[in-house]
Amino acid sequence: MNKLMIFSMLGCISLAFAASPVQRFTVDDSEVVAIQDATQSIAVALFGDDAGVQQALAKLYPRNSAPSSVNVFLIRSEKRIILVDTGLGNQHGSFLSHALDDLHVSPAQVTDILLTHLHPDHIGGMISSVGQAMFPNATVWLSQEEFRGMKMGSREAAPLMRNVYLAYQRKLKLFKDEQEILPGIVARLAVGHTPGHTTFLLNDKFLFVGDLLHAAVWQFPRPDLCTKWDADPTAAVAARRKVLQLAQEKELTIAGAHLPFPGVGTVKSGGDRGEFSFQPKR
Ligand SMILES: [Zn+2]
Ligand SMILES: [Zn+2]
After folding, report:
1. 187-201 tens-digit pLDDT
2. Tell me: the pLDDT tens digits for 134-187?
3. Which ligand is nearest to the CA of 193?
4. CATH superfamily of 3-280
5. Ion ligand 2 neighbours, Cβ < 5 Å
6. What are the strands, taking DSSP E only, across the chain?
7. Closest-lying ligand to the alpha carbon of 197?
8. How far is the CA of 155 from the centre of ligand 2 (A)?
9. Is the CB of residue 194 less than 8 Å from the CB of residue 149?
10. Residue 22 CA, ligand 2 centroid: distance in Å
11. 4 CA distance to ligand 1 centroid (A)?
12. What pLDDT sits at residue 10?
């Protein structure tokens, strides 16, 4: 993805920046903090112009855009401070660095960054405007499928991805599906949105789902509907159904990068409205 594509992606969503909300959750001995990096809404046009799809969307939520968000999550345990993705980055008005200040976390204290995937709204916060690592001591965890599929280390990689790679290459650790990458944190592939899109399961109860969904009001009831950002729609739909089914059955709490802030809640049956529904935790 080149710079133009990044801007066109940002152009399709409307971003608005307000005071940085932060919300805390407890997971056993760890604290999970949801940080709203930016607010955004998802335009109905991102689902394409198929008349049947547009009709289905209008029936569920008859507006031109749906509430969404850019959420970053911080996991704080006795020994580690972990970020799950890093938001848009300061050049795009990200609030992550202000939120970390408010939480009394200095960037140098961040021990690990778990990347769900390599899109700009997830890796933008990793480097400064001059390409320096914002989190100089962090080990960066990425699936080997995402590294290869997005050609991260190659000259073909988008400039932002390439700059992130150059800033962190010595700290980059590639993992396999189902690998326990840190104590209590298991990486699980859920590909389709990107070639190596990953979810992270904390203590068998809290699941970070990245970009599994972009518009809660439309995609919980209709997980078969994809925005144009899902690179492989067939795989993305299968992954969405599988993960939501699992979350419902195992009563997992899920945390999504683009679910309305704080982006945390549980998955229920959709009843008459569709396949699933989302019960936010506040
Ligand atoms: Zn994405
Ligand atoms: Zn995203």
Report:
1. 999 999 999 999 999
2. 999 999 999 999 999 999 999 999 999 999 999 999 999 999 999 999 999 999
3. 1
4. Ribonuclease Z/Hydroxyacylglutathione hydrolase-like (3.60.15.10)
5. 121, 211
6. 13-16, 22-27, 30-43, 65-76, 81-84, 112-114, 139-143, 172-175, 180-182, 185-189, 198-202, 206-210, 253-256, 264-269, 276-280
7. 1
8. 23
9. yes
10. 19
11. 16
12. 44
Residue 19 one-letter amino acid? A
- Taking the centre of ligand 2 as the mean of its atom positions, its distance from the CA of residue 121, in whole angstroms, is 5
Residue 149 CB contacts under 8 Å (≥ 6 apart), including other chains: 194, 195, 196
Ligand 2 centroid – CA 268 distance (Å): 23
* Residue keyed to tokens 């070639």: 195
Sequence-ordered list of residues with C-beta below 8 angstroms from that of 183, at least 6 positions apart, any chain: none
First and final C-alpha spacing in the chain? 35
Ligand located closest to 256 CA: 2
Residues in the chain predicted with pLDDT less than 70, given as ranges, are 1-20
- 97 Cα: distance to centroid of ligand 1 (angstroms): 21
Cα 180 to ligand 1 centre (Å):
23
Ligand with minimal distance to 191 CA: 1
* Ligand in closest contact with the CA of 68: 2
For residue 214, give the ligand nearest its CA.
2
**Interior/surface letters 92-103, b for 16+ CB within 10 angstroms, e for the rest:** bebbbbebbeeb
Distance 204 CA to ligand 1 centre (A): 24
Alpha carbons 277 and 248: distance in angstroms, whole number: 10
Burial class (CB in 10 A: 0-12, 13-18, 19+), 193: buried
